[in-house]
Specification:
With about 300 residues, the protein is α/β, with parallel strands linked by helices. Helix content is about 40%, strand content about 20%. The model has no long low-confidence stretch (mean pLDDT about 95). Bound molecules: ligand PBG.
Length: about 300
């Protein structure tokens, strides 16, 4: 009766990795319990999640081939497009398909934008039309929401314009608006094979010491047309989740990232933490102000909530 915050299965978004190169699902060593799906097994996985009442998945693709400009991010027959079509054909409105929209899984150098090799710098503006094209290809495949995660300046405006021009005026954008340059993405880079071959991402992702800057990033994305704003990671940045929700009152997502999953799961597997740490961490993210939580514990939490 007096509990102020309740976690619901409706709050959960489950990330899924689809690897075009696989014939069988493959465990991810740095994320015990999580695996890379095949283009076929991902549909079964999505069906299971839907049965548990999980309303949404977010898809990450591992393509057969990578190149300098991330060509396989936007083909109609590429990995995320095919998986989106397959899941929507099977589950329709029973599963909201969100597509992660970034180039790092598709570029040979692993950066989130195209790179000028003379300066070694990521080229912000030349990347924008590629993100626009990718968004349109996702929407054409049936994506319900597109989620740009590359932290390029102007990405939300470019994607909104591309979607609108192609008739996808009703496709919402979930923007990774305040995304920090974080060590907690380490296991994801194994999972999605998206590590970078030189430099780091600190020129486009946020400095962990800054929070006013994060507010400006969120504001900019809202002005450009973001429908949902995200803070990422979640647990080390709950102050931002709180501030963003308080200040903007937007639908606010928090991404509890791979490193958060692995440190909790790893400690539980070692016997160093009790399993209840999982639900405690999720409710803390909700308490801070998140309306939705992207978490690799989605399946576990859905089972737990069902009792
Ligand atoms: C791609 C992207 C990343 C994550 C989501 N989208 C990795 C990164 O920016 O390096 C991280 C998710 C996680 O760690 O669970 N830009």
């Amino acid at each position: 009766m007096v509990r102020e915050t309740a976690l619901s299965v409706d709050d959960l978004i489950a990330p899924l990795f689809i690897d075009e190169n696989l014939a069988n699902p493959q465990p991810i060593a740095s994320m015990p319990g999580i695996r890379r799906e095949t283009p076929v097994s991902v549909v079964n996985e999505a069906r299971e999640l839907a049965k548990m009442g999980i309303p949404a998945v977010i898809l990450f693709g591992l393509p057969k081939e990578k190149d300098e400009t991330g060509t396989h991010a936007y083909g109609d027959d590429d990995v995320v497009q095919n998986a989106t079509r397959a899941i929507k054909a099977e589950l329709g409105d029973d599963m909201v398909v969100i597509t992660d929209l970034c180039l790092c899984e598709y570029t040979s150098h692993g950066h989130c934008g195209i790179v000028d090799y003379e300066t070694g710098e990521v080229q912000n503006d030349p990347t924008l039309p590629i993100l626009g094209k990718t968004a349109v290809s996702h929407a054409r495949a049936g994506a319900d929401i597109v989620a740009p995660s590359g932290m390029m300046d102007g990405m939300v405006a470019a994607i909104r314009q591309a979607l609108d021009e192609n008739g996808f005026t009703n496709t919402p954008i979930m923007s990774y608006a305040a995304k920090y340059s974080s060590s907690f993405y380490g296991p994801f880079r194994d999972a999605a094979d998206s590590g970078y071959s030189f430099g780091d991402r600190s020129t486009y992702q946020m400095d962990p010491g800054n929070s006013n800057e994060a507010m400006r990033e969120v504001q900019q994305d809202i002005e450009e047309g973001a429908d949902i704003v995200m803070v990422k990671p979640a647990l080390p940045y709950l102050d931002l989740v709180y501030r963003v929700k308080q200040e903007f009152g937007m639908p606010t997502a928090a991404y509890s990232v791979s490193g958060e999953y692995s440190m909790i799961k790893g400690a539980i597997d070692q016997g160093w933490l009790d399993e209840s740490a999982i639900m405690e961490s999720l409710i803390s993210i909700k308490r801070a102000g998140a309306d939705m939580i992207l978490t690799y514990f989605a399946r576990y939490a859905a089972e737990k909530l069902k009792g």
